[in-house]
């Protein structure tokens, strides 16, 4: 059977319902007011949330791990630190009765949070957001959810109109609902919310819940609200296109380059931090950056976070807000910042921020011994410790003095030339070995962070 798990390794994509439910909360089959990562779970509970805070937080942390797996191509073998504090793979994170991660290749992962079936993303937010949430809050919830799909590895899928707060007035099966409910207003004047109760067929049981919401004028998005969604979405398209690091082609690349921070049992719930590495690897995918860091702050307040990996690296450059966001139509994201003193990022509430580190900013501590005469050189790597601004002399290898050059006698010329050729090849081999060792050292630090 062509189930999700059975399709792993075929190169054929399957729709990822894991990220859908974790971002939105609930499922298409129930939990209409059950909150998820993007719309207030734990940090901004709605009026029907009655579980103890500890249960709310544990639920949020599990959903965050499901999102992390999906963002890593939903790979079954992707390794990271779960909210339990254990190092696990994607297939060990639970989703219902099955695994969250099930793919063998990122192309097999189709990330989505809304489609033609079931409620639109904006309708789900209208159900789940607390009553006190303003329309501006709800727009940011919409943008938060879409940003997760946009910056995930795999194939991003966006329901038409999800960039314009599209609503079907809660119609969960609009196949026979006509243009009145299915129409898209490309003038951005209306979203489709509040145009009437949807057909009774598959919606009637929720009429008591729908009616007061559809009749509330405060829940009607204005053209400015719709454009706030549309403009930011288009900026994210530019950012995704700006770097191949957002579009990794193999499982090996995802495991080598993508890492999550703010993980484990003591993490800040509501903040997902992802780094994409391009420095120190055998292939340089992006000639403009060494690293990208994306922070998804779904909480209501600004957060400051300093990834441990940055404390362990020697940096000659500084992170900066992605140029698209530095001139964003969203004034709030322009307030996101990086502090070089403690290597921390600050991101406003309900905001996704992308930071880039310029090419050539990361230096890895690698030492290569100089060759002695015609001997083949050997590469040595600095001890596996965090580099410091002033490396200890005891840890720095002493260079071997080069022998003074002497003229070869005529009968020795051929031998000397052959020896020189061997020396050149030896140096090449040594440098390649050093680069490989540097890459392994950098990956070890990423996994420890």
- Percentage of helical residues? 25-40%
**Strand order across the largest sheet:** 8-9-10-16-13
The total beta strand count reads 19
Computed over alpha carbons, the radius of gyration is 26 Å
N- to C-terminal separation?
40 Å
Strand content: 15-25%
In the CATH hierarchy, what is the superfamily of the largest domain? Answer: Glycosidases
CATH hierarchy class name of the largest domain: Alpha Beta
Mean pLDDT, rounded to whole units?
Answer: 86
Number of helices: 11
Would you tell me the structural class of the helices and strands? alpha+beta
Poorly predicted ranges: 365-435
The count of domains is 3
Give the quaternary arrangement of the chains: single chain
Question: What does this protein look like?
Answer:
This protein is an alpha+beta fold and 449 residues long. It has helices at residues 17-24, 53-71, 121-128, 135-150, 178-182, 207-214, 223-242, 251-257, 308-311, 323-326, 413-448, and strands spanning 14-16, 79-81, 87-89, 94-95, 98-99, 109-111, 155-156, 258-261, 271-277, 289-297, 303-305, 314-315, 320-321, 337-339, 344-347, 351-358, 362-363, 366-368, 379-381. The longest helix has 36 residues, at 413-448.
